[in-house]
Amino acid sequence: MLKIRKIFNDSEGRYGSPKVYQSLRNQGIRVGENRVARLMREWGMKARSYRIYRRLLTRRAVLRAWPNYRLATEKPVAINQQWSSDVTYIKMGRKNVFLAVVLDLFSRRIVGWKLEASLNGELSRGALKQALQLRSPPPGLLLHTDRGTEFRALRMRDMMTRHQIVHSMSRPGYCTDNAEVESFFKSLKGELLHATSFVTLRQLRHHIKQYIERFYNTQRLHSSLGYRAPLEFEGAN
Question: Signal peptide location in the record (predicted)?
Answer without folding.
Answer: none
